[in-house]
Please model this.
Amino acid sequence: MVAVTLYHNPNCSKSRQTLALLQAGAATVNLVEYLKQPPNAAELRQILNALGLSARQLMRTKEAVYLELNLEDTSLTEAALIDAMVEHPILIERPIALTEHGAVIGRPPERVLTLL
Model:
């Protein structure tokens, strides 16, 4: 049985679908409601490393706070973008599934099946 940490938003249909797929695949799921328990900067760096993404690639660019904070500014550093996601976790793309073998963003939800 694969142990999966799922950064989850229960209000998101893709996140709920991803959770259902993991549960049907007999995975042991450790749910992290990241809006209530946001990752700190070090944890977010580990997640980014596991995903092989930059901070900008993990950001939800259509969120109002993205525009309000002028996060489209290409001169912002990786650290500044990570700090913004820590402060405003709604900016983090979801759901994120992590295992000891890898990590994926569950968009589409079926991507998590590659971890099982």
